[in-house]
């Protein structure tokens, strides 16, 4: 093996090879905006849109304003959502996916209703958009799939109750109407008086107990 060359005692430190790489003449690379656009842009625009909807409602949405909030070019959101309807449709699809997941965690119909109310409180912007079909692209496959999964989760919860003289499908409508109506009134501050300082979820449990009982 050839001996490793080392600077001789008479060699100055200035003559020693530098540890620094030779300059290439190319400035250090800056973070790629293109990577941001194709990686985080969709989530950034969705998050900004949810903030606007929660504060001012869906009618306040503007793709140009959302681009400004997300710090990207005004044309960038259209790359992912095409238009305002596409953006709202994506929000609704995401909302139904979240709702489906939380409903499937419920052990019975009453708790499914509680989780429905909890979802509305935790995701008020999604909740506003999901049930506004005039704002959405009805033929969107992602939306249709997510909505179906949420409906299946509700029907599964309804299958555990046996209200006398009521067909299961109508029982599902009754359960959905109770949870959705309570959540909508709650978000609109129409139940501030009746609910008062009590936990809204506990109030809903009491209401649901009046109408439904779990099957053995």
| Largest pleated sheet | none
Overall 3D shape: globular
CA-CA gap between termini:
83 Å
Could you estimate the helical fraction of the residues in percent? 55-70%
> What is the count of helical runs?
11
**Structural class by SSE content:** mainly alpha
N-to-C SSE string, H for helix and E for strand: HHHHHHHHHHH
In total, the number of strands is 0
User: What's the assembly state of these chains?
Assistant: single chain
How much of the residues is beta strand, in percent?
Answer: under 5%
Q: Which residues form runs of ≥5 with pLDDT under 50?
A: 2-18, 28-38
Radius of gyration: 28 Å
Mean pLDDT: 83
Notable traits:
11 helices, globular, mainly alpha, single chain, 0% strand, 216 residues
Could you walk me through the main structural features you see in this protein, from its secondary elements to its overall organization?
This protein is mostly helical and 216 residues long. Helix content is 61%, strand content 0%. It contains 11 helices and no strands. It has helices at 33-39, 41-56, 63-70, 76-81, 84-103, 109-122, 124-130, 141-158, 168-187, 192-195, 200-211. Helix 2 (41-56) crosses helix 3 (63-70) and helix 5 (84-103) runs antiparallel to helix 6. The protein is globular. Residues 2-18 and 28-38 have low confidence and may be disordered.
How are the secondary structure elements laid out?
Layout: H1 33-39, H2 41-56, H3 63-70, H4 76-81, H5 84-103, H6 109-122, H7 124-130, H8 141-158, H9 168-187, H10 192-195, H11 200-211
Helix pairs in contact: 2-3, 2-7, 5-6, 5-7, 5-8, 6-7, 6-9, 6-11
